[in-house]
Task: structure prediction
Amino acid sequence: YIKNLKEEIIYELTEETVTWEEVTDNISSKKELESFIAKNINSQFGSFKEYFNEYIAENDMDLPSVMKNSNIDKGYFYNIVNGDRQPKRDKILCLCIGAGMDVAHINRGLRLGHFSRLDPKNERDLRIKYAVMNGESSVININIMLENEGLEILK
Result:
């Protein structure tokens, strides 16, 4: 349990360049550990919808352009944004990519949606990650790349 927790904390904090030692030096009890997890791992967002909407607001983005870049049907898009539908993993990827999120933000969105993060051992995930890291924010362009590689497109 502790090994998996350690890996998860390190992964979540990678973008913030905090080391495991810096984290563990300040945690001496189970109560402190649980407090750290609540604050840093589970975050202030209870759902993907909350996280996504906050990201859009903080980055002063307009929903129509995010919807276009996400390549998601208008009705389905607004059902997700309003919390009427719970998106599957591919839809979360589409929304996050369409919003121009970096890999760390995408992985947090996936986690909040209760899905696995982009897996570097999975070719499809690795190619998506590479595209995002190189500034791609159009699901259509990523789908073209995936299709050219013989991989399943984002649906």
